[in-house]
Design goal:
Alpha-Beta Plaits; 16% helix; globular
Length: 294
Amino acid sequence: MTPQTAEPTENPVAGPLPAAGTMGCMALYALRSGVLPRMPRLMDFTAKVHGALCALSDTGKGSAVAFSGRSPSGAPLRRHEHAYLFCDAAGHDDAITHLYIWAGEDFDAQALFALTKLNKVWGHGGPDVYLRLEGIGQAEVLAPAALLGPAREWTAYTPFISSRHAKTYRDGRAKHDPANGLLIGSAPHELARLLALDKRFAGAAIRAVQDDHPFCYGTSRHAPGAFRTARTDRGGTKGESHGWAFTIRFPQPVAGPIALGYGAHFGLGMFRAVEPKEVNGATSSSSNHIPRRS
C-alpha cells in the first residue's frame, strides 16, 4: 500500500486506468422512466445513482471502495481506482437511455451486491428512474467501441470542467506557461497538464471545438453552458463553472475510457473515440451517440 502523506502529490494517472492486460470491468444498465433524465442534467442523475450504490453496498462498515473513493482506512484514493459513471443518449434526442459503470479492476463482492440490487433511483420532484441491469463483466464485451477505442482522435461527449482557476500576476497580467504558451489554470492548460501526467497520453495535441453547440445527441444540440456542472453533494474541487469541448489527437491509437477534469467520475469530461479501431470484431458507427456493440 502506498503510504499517505500530509503533502499533496501529483497524480501519475490522469484518468481511468484499467488493470494490466484488461480494459476494465463494467456494469451496463438500460433506463426506463415516464420522463428520462437529460444529458445536460446528467450530474443530477449520476449523483443519485452514486448515492444509491453507496447505500446499497454499506454493510455497516462503510460503502464499497469502488463507490466511496476511499480506502478502508478512510483515506481518499489517489489513482482514480473508484468507479466512473458514464451516461449515453442512444435515442433520437438527449434523453439518457443507458448507464455504464466502469472500474479499472474487477468489482469486489460488496460492489457486485450493490450493482445487482440497483434498480431504481428516486425522482425527487420528478418521475422515478428504473434501471435494468443488462450485464456485468469485461468492459471490452459490454462497452461501446466509442467508449473504449482504441483511436488516435477523441472528441468531447460531455463538457470538460477545469479544477483550477486562471492565474494572473499581481498587476493583473495573465500568466502563461512558457512550455506551451497557454494561460496557466485555464481549461486548455488544465487539460494539457492532466494529459502530460500520464505516459499513456504522451504527445497529445488538443484543440478547442469551434462550435457554439458542440454537444450533439440525436436531434438535440447543446452549448457547454446548458449543462449543470455542480455536484448535488457539493463534492470535488472545481475551478471554472464554464464547460469546454475539446478534441484530443494522439500520435498512436490510445485505449479508453477517457474522462478528465472536475466531475469525471460523475459523467463530465467524457471523450468518445472518433473512428475507433475494430475491437473483438465490432466497429463503431458514425452517429452522435456512443454506438453500442451488436
